[in-house]
Amino acid sequence: MSVQAPSAVVLIRPHRFAPNPETAADNAFQASAAVRDPDRIAAAAYDEVTAVAQALELAGIRVHLFEDLDHTRPDSVFPNNWLSTHTGGHIGVFPMYTPNRRTERRTDILDFLKTHYRVQDVIDYSGLEMDDVFLEGTGAMVLDHTDRVAYTARSNRADPVALERFCTNFGYEPMTFDAADGAGVAVYHTNVMMCVATEFAMVGLDMIRSKARRTEVAQRLSSGGRAVIGLSLRQVSEFAGNAIELQGPEGRILALSRRALNSLTTAQKEVILRSCRLLPIDVPTIELAGGSVRCMIAGIHLSPRRAPSERPASRSRETSMAKQVAGPIMTS
């Protein structure tokens, strides 16, 4: 089993998905959907999340699938931006940059995790929003759970104050850098350009502005023996960096979109296949919002309260619970 690769995940299945106009200003990966039928977009996104859940379950991943019927939360399909879980029973809840994303934080999901997994504490940073301080979870940070490093591209969605607090509370070393695409636009979320797995890392090194910092990031990633797979700007734009390693009963898998897989070279795939099985899933509608398969998945690094043989066989309970559309978490 790998500390890096969770064997259970949270997914949100939205009923009214749409590319969020409020996030378009700093998300260069987002596409316009102005001329497309909103009902068709929502229906296609619903089907794509269903397909992701089914593919992961077939691979032996425990999937907790929650519904979202709220039409005011176009980006709720990306729960990793507000939620992270950590070994030892810790949960992080994060401040969101865009106001219409803040209601994505759901108490029913936290209550579910507390019921089914061993949770010692929930550290809620969402109150930092009142001071315009933001850190959008494992979108803003790519976490190396083995070497305890939080790789973070500076952006509107990754404030150094919040990052320092997170790293102090959860025991990570912050490693920040400035990154931009070919047009000079800052990378809005680190997880579109970087994926850290157990035995390899994929990263758009050329997007890191400082050559010296680029070298430092590559050396830090490889210091534990990982192979570092450099991604081109084109591959990053095809969401090749937006992948996540998961632990199945027969070994580790790398979940990514079909579009991302098609952009990888044969040599890059060979490096991945030394330690992971590739699991491509088509999510073209979700990708309109500027995120792909990794953004859709909140990994669960918590210990279950019950043995696997004692758990319910179906997802019916969490799906039923999730139909209760919850408001934002109240901070203390």
What does this structure look like?
This protein is an alpha/beta fold and 332 residues long. It has a single domain, classed as L-arginine/glycine Amidinotransferase, Chain A, CATH 3.75.10.10. The protein is 27% helix and 21% strand. The strands form five sheets. Strands 2-1-15 form a three-stranded mixed sheet. It comes from Arthrobacter ramosus. GO terms for molecular function: hydrolase activity.
List keywords for this structure.
15 strands; 3-stranded mixed beta sheet; 27% helix; 332 residues; alpha/beta
The whole-number mean of residue pLDDT values reads 90
**What's the CATH C level?**
Alpha Beta
Unreliable spans are 312-317, 320-332
CATH architecture: 5-stranded Propeller
Helix segment tally:
10
Share of helix, binned: 25-40%
Output the radius of gyration: 18 Å
